[in-house]
Amino acid sequence: MLINVFLLGLLTSTTSMYCARGKGDTLDSLAPLQHSDSHTTISIKKTSSAASVDIDTLTPFHRYMMKVGKSESVDFPELPLIGTWLQYFEAYHNHMARFRGKSRVVFMEIGVQSGGKIPLMRKYFGPGLEYVGIDNNPTTKKFQSAEGDEFKVNIEIGDSGDPAFLREIKAKYPHVDIFLDDGGHFMHQQILALKEMLPHVQPEGVYMCEDISSSWNAGYGGVRNGFVGGNPMFLSKTMAGLIHQTMDWFMASGMQARGFLSLDDLPDDAFQGEHTQDSLWWKTIPSQVKHIHYYNSLVVYEKGLTHIPTKWESTGEYIPYKDSGVHEPVNW
Fold it and tell me: Distance between alpha carbon 154 and the CA centroid of its chain, in Å?
């Protein structure tokens, strides 16, 4: 298959649009969600000037782009093009690394476009990857793998803003480990995808949505100059506003454990907004999501076994919050 040829080219190519200096290959061994003790600088070469970007973790995604970045000395005309943002790579590696090398990992993405993430994710996850791409452009069907191919690529054509279409996708693909929304970026699309697909992702899976910045773009249904607390429309109509609400929902079980509220007493429509009219779905957040991570223009929902927060105390002497008047030194 052509994609295998692309990957072979990536393994053998060393020419790059980037010049990296720092800790070199030792960065490959960095654990996710950890940072190196010194920064790495990537100088992005442009036609007229060079811009330097400091990053604290050089991930396999950075290294991939170093090899296939567009420049005069690199020419892979048959390679599917990828356009992305540098700050997303750390999020990818932090939350996807545990799936690398598994015998099977199903990665579903809204927004195939030029197909560049297909070889990127194949290189990252290994031969166990099954890629499912969703796009409204029939041209992307060209990336569909042939029956019997070892590398499984499935392309589904449809409108991600159509609830019926997403429900068909869920029925056809009952197992999804990682879901990435990099689609049309319109508010109704991002909001609907979160509502439909977050509960569908596997119990220990990952849900990501990119380009949250469209929440401030009126052309995508966002609110220009909006912010939570300053504009009710921003909170109720944008993806960024919905993310803020999910943080409230996420904290709900903890607040109940502390006696600050009762989930049982909250009506199903307790949270207002166009995206919460069918509001029973919001209760999946405290019951299924164990972490919410916010990056620049990207949000990650880590699913997993959730617990009602429980306070533990060890044995030992208790010191009250106020001064007890006893200041005897401890003999360690």
Answer: 20
> What span, in angstroms and rounded, lies between the C-alpha atoms of 251 and 30?
31
Radius of gyration of the chain (CA): 23
Summarised one tens digit per residue, pLDDT across range 189-208 is 898 899 899 999 999 999 99
User: DSSP letter at 12?
Assistant: H
Asked whether 271 and 248 are in contact (CB, 8 A), the reply is yes
Q: Are strands 129-135 and 105-110 parallel, antiparallel or unpaired?
A: parallel
Q: What is the pTM of this model?
A: 0.77
Q: Is residue 209 within 8 Å of 239, Cβ to Cβ? A: yes
d(C-alpha 282, C-alpha 300), whole Å: 16
How far apart are alpha carbons 161 and 213 in whole angstroms?
18
Assign residue 325 a region: left if phi > 0, alpha if psi is -120 to 50, beta otherwise?
Answer: left
Give 242-248's long-range contacts (Cβ < 8 A, gap of 24+). Answer: 242/191, 242/194, 242/273, 242/275, 243/212, 243/292, 243/294, 243/299, 245/271, 245/273, 245/276, 245/282, 246/194, 246/282, 246/285, 246/289, 246/292, 246/301, 247/292
* Interval 120-163: pLDDT, tens: 899 899 999 999 999 999 999 989 998 888 889 999 999 998 99
- Give the CA diameter of the chain: 78
